[in-house]
What we know:
Residues 36-306 form the D-isomer specific 2-hydroxyacid dehydrogenase catalytic domain. Helices cover 31% and strands 16% of the residues. The chain has helices at 12-19, 36-41, 54-58, 78-83, 96-111, 114-122, 147-158, 185-188, 211-215, 234-242, 284-302, and strands at 2-5, 24-27, 44-47, 65-68, 87-89, 139-143, 162-167, 178-181, 194-197, 222-225, 248-251, 271-273. 35% of the residues are buried.
Amino acid sequence: MKVVGLNRMREVEEKLKDKFPDVSFKFYKKAIDIPSEDKEELDILVGHDSNVDEAFLKSCPNLKWLAWFATGVNNLPLQYIKDNNILLTNGRGVQAKQLSEYILAFILDDYKKMPLSYENQRKHIYDSTITGKRLAHNTLLFLGTGAIAQRTAKLAQAFNMKVIGLSKSGQQKDNFDEVYNIFALNDILPQADIVINALPETTETIHLLQKQHFEIMKDDVLFINIGRGSIVKEEIIIEVLREKIIRHAYLDVFEHEPLSSESPLYELDNVTITAHITGNDYNAKYDLLDIFTNNLSSFLTKGELNENIVEADKGY
């Protein structure tokens, strides 16, 4: 059995070799660094690299399992993976720890008017009349009730917020006050003070949000997108913000990435932009490796995987 890492894993490399002495491990800095010989012989690919496309996978004829160290798999050649019966796992749940903290940071940054205080600081203005808002009793609406939403909902409950979720199943989740089927979108959107997109990219979620959805939100709603930028066309979110249909947005993901330096979003004063950084976490690799190690043990003994299995045809 041969495992090839798409990234170097530092001190963890030796731990894996010690734990699985019968497995051959090779680790590289990037996918492009992997020599043809290793690609032809490998059974398992582990890690994350944006250069893993269909052509790359075709150069790995014995690939049985791709252990993807990210939550989103939408940029992978999912049809090829399905057609070739390649097992696929992801990092679902790991990034939720970091993402949930970012979401709360965005909300607190906005509600406590921290950007205004910083701007006053830069202008040498001392304004003690600035008054923030409490989070308590505000309604937080999650589009998607997966690991990110569930972890954030737990934190939001500590602030006495009302948490509503919309999902494909409408199944109740811990720490949510209410969960509805996504078909209730038009009925639930007007209730929310904060709307957060945490949906994965699938054929059903691409451009799910249209201009009319923002028009039925509260005028002073805060919109946060840490899911996928494809939830709304870029020209529509620009139009919505430019026309001030909603009060403010925090955007970490965009329909087209990297966001062009010419994007009108940079010129708008009612949007805060982060460069798809909310999942970045120095400690995440240890959690990801725990998942990989558990799955590898099962794969070697039973030929099956235990957790974070992704159905390629669904994209999650």
